[in-house]
Amino acid sequence: MSDTPYYEKHVFFCLNHREDGRPCCADRGAQAAQEHAKKKIKQLGLNGHGKIRINKAGCLDRCEEGPVLVVYPQGTWYTFVDTQDIDEIIEVDLVGGKVVERLKI
């Protein structure tokens, strides 16, 4: 078995929906953002084995700070407002390897 990770970076978008009225990522555009990121990574040819994987996740327990996503293996947590924020995370972190400080939580 190889010690090399299957994906270079693995991104999880919280898509949790809370029924009790508390803040949740699902009510803050998380689904559209996840779909945008997945499409953008495919357009850039960065998806697949050894590259980048964009995934949906259930509750990541940080909805109050959301919407949120987390990038592994480094474990960087981000919030975002729109597709421009997602594009910046893709360009600066996923491609460039640097943390987007203004969106980090």
UniProtKB/TrEMBL annotation:
It comes from the Bacteria. InterPro entries: Thioredoxin-like_sf. This is Ferredoxin. It comes from Undibacterium terreum.
